[in-house]
Amino acid sequence: MRLNFFRAALLALLLPINVLAQTPKSYSAADIALGLRKLNILGSVLYIAAHPDDENTRLIAYMANGKLLETGYLSCTRGDGGQNLIGPELREQLGVIRTQELLAARRIDGGRQFFTRANDFGFSKTAEETFTIWDKEQVLSDMVWVIRQRRPDVLITRFPPDSRAGHGHHTASAMLAIEAFDAAGDPKRFPEQLKYVQAWQPKRLLWNTGSFFVKPGDDMSGYLSLDAGAYNALLGQSYGEIAARSRSQHKSQGFGAAATRGEALEYFQPLKGEKAAKDPFEGVDMSWNRVKGGAAVGKLIDEVIKKYDPANPAASVTGLLKVQKALDSLTPKSLSEDEFWVQQKKEQVKMLLRASLGLYLEATANSSTVVAGDKVPISIEITPRFQASRENPAVELLRIAYAGKDSAVKDMRLTSGRQLLLRKQLVLPSAAVLASQPYWLRTQGTVGMYSVEDQLGRGKPENDPASEVKLTFGIDGQVVEYTVPVQYKNTDPVEGEKYRPLTIVPPVAVNIGGRAYVFADNQPKTVPVTLRAGKAGVKGTLALTLPTGWKAEPASFSFDLAAKDAEQTVQFRVQPGAGAAEGKTELRAVATVEGQAYSRGYQAIQYNHIPTQTLFPEAVAPLVKLDLKRKGQEIGYLMGAGDEVPDALRQIGYNVTLLKEPDLTADNLRRFDAVLLGIRAYNTLDRLRFLQPVLLEYVQQGGNLIVQYTVNSRVVLPEIGPYPLKLSYDRVTVENAEVRFLQPKNPLLNTPNKITSRDFQGWVQEQGLYYPSSWDAHYQTIISSNDPGEKPKDSAILVTAYGKGHYMYTGLAFFRELPAGVPGAYRLLTNMISLGK
């Protein structure tokens, strides 16, 4: 056996790995049978939309498992601008969560996941507005790049290219798909990509219409259609059942879905390309005849399928090796369509060989984190698990490569059912300081775009592994290579085995406690800064970088962290001096170790439905000096979907008690000057339907109840106020839209703080959302604003006296503005809390 090993190692580094920190997959006999059938289908489809959750998971499940096509979903954004139903993470952190939720969905429905560099900056009402924030040419370039890489025969959009799409990002995704359809096939468009790929012209572009766009009784005779509701006997599920499990991975959006069974017609309207009479894939040759010399390969695969024995999958290995050998003889030397399909099918053959042999491969490190340049002990497990017989192939481990090193293990025969455990040591390159930061967050982008300089990196769903092991096997005289990511594995006493990505960390991480530091007077505040050691024996100094006029005690602090993962928190006393200007600025924490400055933190995002994600945010926090007066002291806060408003209120001196549903009693609430309900409380806390009378009694007895925005669907009770109000999708997305005062003398605008137009400057992402569209005459409206070209929206704040107290509903985005340190948001919310005091 001969192998150009180093050439193979280089190729392995260029191949993206899309499944990280997962239990190594075990394949059932049915999985293998489905994979063999897919080996004989040469067709590709790419679904295109704007956000996580926009995709039609039933159609993707059908295309990938029923039609057996190479199926992809291209989401323009990572969902960074949405709300979070399961925790406090927003913006970039939420984008990381939703990226992983999409990958979890694709592992269920069988699709592949891709992205552009577009940043989800929040709700947009028109494509025109979207393109003032997105760099349209860059997003189009990324879409073309994915099309040229994946060579789909058919493109499908989720949305129409007009206002019916209901969101500017939705409309923009369809408009871009129409342009990309032509641009992908034009070598004059984005010629820099042709160093790696060739121009590619899909056959047609279709719009997948749905219930949002088609009314019952509409004439669908002019549309193409297919039934995506069939039952897959090999998987034991209908595509509607698979789709429900897939869509239910979007947990941060609360999109748990019910399974469907039976007929499910999908309709398609042609947008571009060749016309089709009935079938969306009409005229697409999906057989091996589309590859020069491929007909013989198809016959070999037919033979493997015919002889496949689900009780003994290893009996198919000999036939699969023949297929692999035939594919090797077909390998083209140019970036042609033939090369794409030959490479795709070679990867599938490798997977099927591994699955048929029951070959378990795993590489684990003894720690979840490591500093670049350090040596990492790893364990490699290799266990073949096929039925032993004379007919089954001999398997040998030839050699191992890790971290660029070749560690030969020659002619080691593997015995079925017997575990081979190897202990090795790898060295991570010293240049990999930020390798574990999500690649799209490594450099500063803009409001609308992430920055990714590397052309080969664009479109990928996530980082490549921090480190990997390449294992080379000889199977009946043929060489097969597998690349295995190095992970960390531990056993949880409740959940059992859990995997985490191996994460490269800096020698010291610097975390600032809290989000914004707000100074309503010149009194000092404590700013805790926590140091975390990436390795043992880290010594250095820590200091705060402050704007002019501010001071901190101590000026610097010497630290010595003896153990890896050790933490030490330093309490700095920060206060504005006489020269500190009013308004918003920022502080930065910097640790210096051996002359090198480190100013990034360590943030692990942990949820059971996704692998642990680690971010390294800049160690900065807003500093806000403002003129603020307040009345009242005690605040009760009932958390809804999760936000950081309680910490922000503590910053300005309130005593905030986090409430649970059992705490909502008349006696307990009486002690609070105001009670606030967190975002989406009436969507997430089912018991509020029974506790609403208690809250209203609190208001009647003189309390202030402030309800933050509630989504107008899935509300736990019909009325959330003392008088009727109807929630809607109305919002003001332009964060700095002009605000008009409807009642200039109202206490909310005057007491204890005088609110002016200046207080609505510097807001982030959006002004507000889910405003009521109608309301009872008892409610007073306080302010009005609107997006360009729209009618005024007057219900950002609704307030009514009720008994001795006040009830207030607000859609203003305090949950975004307060953590961002927006001065006017603090002043306005303080007035709401102080009303009537």
TrEMBL record:
SUPFAM superfamilies in the record: Class I glutamine amidotransferase-like, LmbE-like
> Signal as a keyword?
yes
Its keywords, alphabetically, are: Signal
InterPro entries in the cross-refs: A-galactase_NEW3 (IPR018905), Class_I_gatase-like (IPR029062), GlcNAc_PI_deacetylase-related (IPR003737), LmbE-like_dom_sf (IPR024078)
* Domain Alpha-galactosidase NEW3 as annotated: residue spans: 539-593
- List the Pfam families hit by this protein, alphabetically: NPCBM_assoc, PIG-L
**Signal sequence region:** 1-21
Q: Is Transcription included in the keywords of this UniProt record?
A: no
- Gene3D superfamilies annotated for this entry? LmbE-like
- The protein depicted here goes by the name PIG-L family deacetylase
Q: What is the lineage of its organism?
A: Bacteria, Pseudomonadati, Bacteroidota, Cytophagia, Cytophagales
